[in-house]
Write a structure and sequence with these properties.
This protein is an alpha/beta fold. Helices cover 42% and strands 14% of the residues. It has a 9-stranded mixed beta sheet with strand order 1-2-10-11-7-6-3-4-5. Strands 8-9 form a two-stranded antiparallel sheet. Helix 3 links the parallel strand 3 and strand 4. The chain is globular.
Amino acid sequence: MDVIKIDDFPINPIQDQIYEVIPDKSKIVASTNRLFNKYPTRYISAVPRFAINAFSQSGDNVLDPFCGSGTTAIEAMLLGRNALSIDIDQFARLLIKVKTTVYSADDIAFLDRVINKMKSMRPESGIEYPMPDIPNIDKWFCEKSKIGLAFFKSTIDKLADENSKIKDYLYVVIAGIIRKVSNADEVSPKPYVSTRFPKTPADPYELFYKTEEMYREAIIEFSKDVSKYDCNSIILDSRDARIIDTDKVVDLAVTSPPYINAYDYVRSLRFEDLWLGLTSDDELRESRKSYIGTENAQSFYNDYSYVDQCDLLRPIVAEIQKVDEKRASIVKTYFEDMGKNMAAVYQRLKHGGKYVIVVGDSNIRGQSIPTAKILAQISERIGYSFELSFKYVIRDRYLHLPRSGRGGIIKYDEVLVISKN
C-alpha cells in the first residue's frame, strides 16, 4: 500500500491506510509542545488533534490515562475542551501541570522579577547547596553542573515560593537542562556515560536562561490561545491507568500507552524526579513495579480473564512460552493491564464515546504481535465496537529504543478507534 503524505490527519481517515505526517511548520505554534522538554516516546500532536476534532465538541471532557508529556491535554485545551490526565510519574505530572497552566500578566511580571534577581546572583562561596540523593552523583555530573543545578533549585525555592505556578514552571526549566549539563549520553533512553564518545557538559548558567526564554514563549502563547475558551486541565489523583477516579463523564479518551516491554520510563526520568525532589530513589524503584507492560511488574496475574478470551493472542503466547516463560508472562500481563484500562475507561465514557489508542506492533522471541488487533478483540469483550484503524510513519525517533530481540524497531504507530455501545 502506498503511503499518503499529509500535513495533518483527515477527519475521515481511510481504513488500514498508512500516512506520513509532515507538519506544515507555518501552522505549528509554540504552545503545542514544540518548545518544551523532549520526552521519551511522545506521540505526535496530530493524533489527539484528529481525534478531538473528529469525535468531540467544544466544552467536552477529553481523558488521557497515559498522558506522559501532556500532548493530549494541550491539544484538548487549544481546541476548547477540558483535559483529564493520569500518569504514574511525578515529573510527568508536574510537566503536564506547567504546560497546561494559564499564566496571567501578573504571573509573568512575577517571573520577570525572579529571573532578573537570579541573573544578579551566582553560587556563594562557602555555602553548601542541598544536593539530591543520586547514587554515584559524581559519575553523572561534574562539579560545575552539580553546583549550578543545586544553586538554581535552592534559589527558586527562596525567590518563587509565593507563586506556585512560577515555581513549578522554573522547576521544569531546570529539568529541561539536566540531561544536557550531565555527563550522560543525550540519545539513549537509559542514561549512561559513554567512554567511547566522551561528552562535554553544557554550561548550566548559560543554558538555564536560554531555556527559560524559549519556554516562556511557549507558556505565553499557550495562555493567549486558550484564554478565549472556558476550559481547564485536571490531573487526576490516581496514578494508575487501570483506575479512572473521576465523577466526570468522559466524552472522548485519547492515549498512547507503553509498548510491550519496550521502555524503562523510571530510569529515563530519574534525574528529573530526583533533582527536583519529587520523589526518592527508593520510591522510584518501588514505583517500577506498578508500570504497565514491564518486566518489573509487582506480580503476574493468577488469572488472565481478558487474555484467555482473546483468540488472536492465545496461540502467540503459547509459542513464546516454548522458548521464554517470563516474556510470555510479560506479554499476557501487558494485555491484561490494557484490558483493565479499557474497562475502566468504558465505565466513565459516555454512550457513543470514542476511545482512541495509539500503539505499535512488537516482535518478541520471534513472534509478531499485532497489538492494535489484539486490543480491538479484547475491547469487544468489554463492550466496545470497532470503528477504525490506520497507521502513520514514525518520523521522530528521539530517544531511540534499543529493543534487539525484544521488540525490534517500530516503523509505524497504529491508531485504533473503538466506541462504547
